[in-house]
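S.,

Sequence below, as promised.
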Amino acid sequence: MREPAVYGTLKYKDLEALLKKEGVRLGLSVICFQSNSESDIIKRIHDAKAEQIRFIIINAAAFTHTSIAIRDALAGVSIRFIEVHISNIFKREKFRHKSYLSDIADGVIVGFGIDGYLFALKKASLSENC
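The prediction came back faster than expected:
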């Protein structure tokens, strides 16, 4: 549950349906995952390697600013990824300006709402090995 004024009112299941539909249009298979558990996110990243997933779009939410473990998982699997944030983290509290993921990401998309996921999906479709 997040602040609708910052994150909008679209439900996760609706975002998932939107991304899967766009994935079909782009010729991609889209698998969505959401968790508030850092360990579950790390496990999912590790599982992605075993599943030979070639690209990750991640919104690590508050873990972006705190989790060296998620950074290590992403670096460890060597899967290309884009970091996405619905809000512009640079217009928010100072502690949100630091990302442990950005410097190893292919790109960072912030402040475009749900469209940021669609931009990332489009970029993934244009990437080699995706």
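The first helix runs from residue 4 to 7.

Coffee later?
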